[in-house]
Specification:
This protein is an alpha/beta fold. The chain is built from 14 helices and 14 strands. It folds into two domains: 2-159 and 345-368, Rossmann fold (3-Layer(aba) Sandwich), CATH 3.40.50.2000; 164-339, Glycogen Phosphorylase B (Rossmann fold), CATH 3.40.50. The longest helix is centred in the first third of the chain and has 18 residues, at 41-58.
């Protein structure tokens, strides 16, 4: 959606895991080159190898691209062969790395092989796009053999038609006797977060309510319904539309859980998650660990409820002391921040497309690019 709003024409080729969300967009040709499964590295590797064999046939109907954006390591493995289909080195490749998988950080032979493969596959790329400075600092500069110029693309909310009534947000301290509401939204895959939050909610005995929304990982939560049934003051509201439902779901809570232990000590400490930007944009005060990149990001801006450590007891102590005035002070600092810290609009989309277009010397300058009327929302 950012690329389209910035004036680019898009064709998508890749693996499919769930429903094809682009199937209804007549402006975006989509080619499914295979299927992958969550967490099954062997199956994903096999899918990549099979796709390489049929790539020329699969991509035959697509127009020649000016730039190939390889959105993870699997796609990087196919970007070179795809470029050769359209004319080889004349098609620049951008490697986008939005997460650092724990296997890439393995100290053994498996990790070394994967990092060597990543460096080899990225040898002809022109640009690295990533979403957190900590990914560059802790992985690409210290462990990876990828050496590319960096384009920082934070996980800000795409808001092409901002509602002036939503910023600055309005505080919602709640009436006397109502619980504090903490939202945990997005990809629900952190079992440790669920354990901490459910035990915390039980101990607070109605003074705190945990509201969960999004996609629950069946791999990490094979018994989610049973866990939920045994967790008083914890509710699950199902999936939601992004960005259409963001104002509604974040408007129901005072705080957003911006802590993740899924890859504790590694990716989880380096990322700047979507829920950080979504929550802040809609007036939900982020809760973060001060030792993580999210915590450092907030501390630099004097924002958020920062914790030195997280366990049910420390959360209980913190929230038992939390007054309405404390919340209003936290909220006021958030509402005083710049909206552009959390959201991007058409101008940023055009700048992104111009940066990518500059990699292809035959493409017209950004000023000459066709900029469509922005009707799209975040994808």
């Amino acid at each position: 959606m950012m690329l389209k709003a910035g004036g680019a024409r898009i064709a998508v080729a890749g693996f499919q895991r769930d429903a094809n969300l682009l199937a209804g967009d007549p402006e975006v040709p989509v080619v499914t080159i295979g299927r992958t499964a969550d967490g099954r590295l062997g199956q994903r590797l096999s899918s990549v190898l099979k796709a390489r064999l049929s790539l020329r046939r699969q991509l035959a109907g697509l127009p020649r691209p000016d730039v190939i954006l390889a959105r993870n390591l699997e796609m990087l493995a196919l970007a070179g062969p795809a470029a050769s289909v359209f004319g080889g080195a004349r098609v620049p490749i951008v490697y986008e790395a939005l997460d650092i998988h724990r296997l890439m950080l393995d100290g053994g032979i498996k990790g070394r092989l994967l990092r060597a493969a990543e460096g080899y596959l990225a040898r002809d790329s022109r640009l690295l796009a990533t979403s957190s400075p900590a990914f560059v600092q802790h992985y690409f500069e210290r462990r990876s053999s990828v050496r590319l110029p960096v384009l920082m693309l934070e996980n800000k909310v795409l808001d092409l038609e901002p509602d002036p009534g939503l910023w600055p947000p309005i505080p919602r301290p709640g009436r006397q006797g109502e619980p504090w509401r903490i939202g945990w939204f997005g990809a629900i895959r952190c079992r440790k977060s669920f354990d901490i939050l459910s035990r915390f909610a039980r101990a607070m005995d109605g003074q705190v309510e945990i509201i969960i929304r999004g996609r629950v990982s069946p791999r990490e939560f094979p018994n989610f319904d049973a866990l939920l049934a045994d967790a008083p003051h914890v509710s699950f509201g199902g999936s939601y539309r992004n960005p259409e439902d963001l104002a509604t779901i974040y408007g129901e809570v005072q705080f957003v859980w911006a802590i993740d232990f899924f890859e504790e000590g590694l990716n989880s400490e380096w990322l700047l998650p979507n829920r950080l930007y979504e929550g802040a944009l809609h007036g939900a005060v982020p809760i973060a660990l001060s030792t993580t990149e999210t915590g450092r990001f907030l501390a630099q801006r004097n924002l958020g409820l920062l914790l030195a450590s997280v366990d049910p007891q420390s959360l209980q102590e913190r929230f038992k002391q939390l007054s309405s005035d404390d919340y209003l002070q936290l909220f006021a600092r958030l509402a005083d921040s710049k909206r552009s810290q959390w959201a991007i609009g058409e101008a940023e989309c055009r700048a992104l497309v111009a940066r990518l277009a500059a990699l292809a010397p035959h493409v017209a300058p950004a000023a000459a690019l066709h900029i469509p009327s922005p009707q799209q929302s975040e994808g």
